[in-house]
Amino acid sequence: MTPQGINSLRAELKRLVEEEGPALSALAPEDPDTKRLRQILSRRIEYVSESLRTAETPAVPTGGDRVEFGSTVTIRDPQNAESTYRLVGVDEADAGENRISWRAPIAKALWHARVGDRVPFVRPSGRTELEIVAIAYEAAGQNP
User: Fold this and answer.
1) Phi-psi category of residue 70: left, alpha or beta, with phi > 0 → left and psi -120 to 50 → alpha
2) CB burial readout 64-86, b (16+ within 10 A) else e
3) SS (H, E, C) 63-121
4) pTM of this prediction?
5) Main-chain phi, psi angles of 75, to 5 degrees
6) Sign of the alpha-carbon torsion through 94, 92, 15, 43
7) Above 90 in pLDDT, residue 16?
8) Residue 57: CB partners within 8 Å, gap ≥ 6?
9) Which of these, 99, 135, 111, 106, lies nearest to 121 by C-alpha position?
10) Looking at residues 16-20, what average pLDDT do you find?
11) Can you give the pLDDT at residue 136?
């Protein structure tokens, strides 16, 4: 997990414990919906706590010429469409934010590639080739 991912989970845990928990306590305790919400909150707190407890933070590169954990990579497909992704930990992945898990198939295809490399990738629509256009590394503690 990246340092930003750990900070994000810490902030979520704090919000769940300090805001969501007390807000639920103010609701009618015998209401079935309230009980269900408490169960959901409890499970999420357990999950986030366990994720933080077991998180590994591999060194995130601050420069280099290969696609690695924490790097931001821009690719071009055969139709010249470009996409940019950041390779992050599983709990940080968010397709809407273009953050993909380092375990995702596309991340595995791009792993250790360099600018100018063309890597094969199998999409649901079939096999294609992706060109590495750019690789960027952020300074520690910043989000791209």
Assistant:
1) left
2) eebbbbbbbbebbeeeeeeeebb
3) CCCCCCCCCEEEEECCCCCEEEEEEECHHHCEHHHCEEECCCHHHHHHCCCCCCCEEEE
4) 0.74
5) -120, 160
6) positive
7) yes
8) 1, 2, 3, 6
9) 106
10) 94
11) 92
Residue 24, CB-side half-sphere exposure with 13 Å CA sphere: 20
Answer yes or no: is pLDDT of 63 > 80.
no
Residue 26 has pLDDT above 90, yes or no: no
Interacting residues of 93 by C-beta distance below 8 A, sequence separation 6+: 99, 100, 101, 104
Residue given tokens 């256009």 in the structure block: 133
Cα–Cα distance measured from residue 54 to residue 124, given in angstroms and rounded to the nearest whole number = 33
Distance CA 53, CA 49 (A): 6
Specify the pLDDT at position 61: 65
Provide the token pair at 144. 């791209």
